[in-house]
Amino acid sequence: MSIPHSLRTSITPTELELVASQQLVEIVPLISMERTAFISGAYGPLRPPNKAKVPLWMAFNLKLKKKCHIVAPDWLNVEYLQGKLSLETTKPEFSSLPFRFAEISKVLLDVASDDLENPDRLRSLLKDLREARQAKSRDGLKTLDHSELSLPNLCSMEINEIRPFFVQSMSLMSQLMPIATVGSLGDS
Amino acid sequence: MDWDDEYDLQTVGGGTAGPSFMDRVRNAAPDEDEDEDIIPGVLPVINETPLEQLIRHWTNERHAPDLLAAQEDLLANLLDHLRRQSETVQLLRGDASTSEEEHIRIMLAQVEIERVKFIVRSYVRTRLFKIEKYARYITTNAEIQTRMTAAERAHASRQANMIDRHLYSSVLQSLPPTQGHLDDVDPLSTSEEPKNIMITEPDRTRPVFAHALQNCPPVHLPDGESLKMAKGHISLVPFYVVEHLVARGEAELV
């Protein structure tokens, strides 16, 4: 009954999505509901057409039943992402994005693309962002040593992506370390 | 008990420690936090709901090479809450007079119950995996046992016993007596008490991604430098470097 093999070394993208779904988003409900106590907290009341803040999983379920519109978070629009993308391609460091932006934008684009402005453009911007950042994190491998690697502004999905390779490389380097002269390898 | 009782219960006694549950909901940081900062998901630890705590412990446990401290009380509280919530849902489902609007509420509550159950299950199974893997280590190490519940300790010793018996009956008994034990030591070791290399130990040097939840005191890195992680900082470091920060809830593994 212990956890299956495939899940032992790392968390999966689906599980990251589950974690991210706990974050609050704004919705415009199409049904009314009293304030209700859930395990993660009390949400509501829903009073159309007033906006309400609910966790993403709840918005997701209501949306599937066509009982609400989801209000896009303020970072999920063409203008904002365009700005981030130009930062990303001109500056060497990672630009700051919400920690779980990849998961949240995926869920929203999957179920609520009709609530977003220009979803196709958003998709391609997110993809460009991802690629620009991926190139940087691969580049970051150069600075990896046996002791520490700082990864400011890296997001949860990106960490998960580089995890297997980076963790193994670093383990290997610390195994080799006692042989090399301590301290002669890079600084961080 | 019906829905509103559950609601009242949360209002009155839900928060076993500190401010009542409703106070925490009202003063909840997420709303303000999101506006002030671009890094959501980083809340001061004090404002965490029990579920958020469990999610943090679950991801920590998933990424840590060693077994972390058991969260018996937190788990018991959540399981209790799960049971109460399931009972409420069952009760309302059985009631034919429930309205359409009520059905949505019931559906949402059920969805949440399944979500929480998944996390609880995955958390427990992750610990189980480590306990079974390190069973023989656990039985010889008193320190790691302090991080386990009584049931987990019992499971570990049963498991270790079974492995020993199995290895003995399948292989060891037919080997020459000098090789017939599980006590080989590291032949290259020069220390007085060489380590038994036939016991699988957690690899505490395995690198992990640590995410500082608050400004952390400096930690010592293997290359002799010290690192001061400010709130929000993410670092790939060997597990033993940040172990104490994770245990104190000052950093989480991501």
Automatic annotation (TrEMBL), chain A:
Record-annotated membrane-spanning stretches: none
Superkingdom to which the source organism belongs: Eukaryota
GO aspect biological process, one term: DNA replication
Domain GINS subunit: 75-176
Subcellular location, record wording: Nucleus
Cited InterPro entries: GINS_A, GINS_bundle-like_dom_sf, GINS_Psf2, PSF2_N
One Pfam short name: PSF2_N
SUPFAM superfamilies for the chain: GINS helical bundle-like, PriA/YqbF domain
Annotated keywords: Chromosome partition, DNA replication, Nucleus
Known partners and oligomeric status: Component of the GINS complex.
Protein name from the UniProt record: DNA replication complex GINS protein PSF2
Organism expressing this protein natively: Collybia nuda
TrEMBL record, chain B:
Ranges where the record places region Disordered: 1-23
GO (cellular component) term, any one: GINS complex
Protein name, entry field: DNA replication complex GINS protein SLD5
Localization per record: Nucleus
Location of the DNA replication complex GINS protein SLD5 C-terminal domain: 202-254
Key words, A-Z: DNA replication, Nucleus
Gene3D superfamilies: 1.20.58.1030
Family: Belongs to the GINS4/SLD5 family.
Entry superkingdom: Eukaryota
A Pfam family annotated for this UniProt entry: SLD5_C
Residues covered by the GINS subunit domain: 95-154
UniProt GO BP: DNA-templated DNA replication; double-strand break repair via break-induced replication
Keyword Transferase: no
SUPFAM superfamilies: GINS helical bundle-like, PriA/YqbF domain
Function as written in the Swiss-Prot or TrEMBL entry: The GINS complex plays an essential role in the initiation of DNA replication.
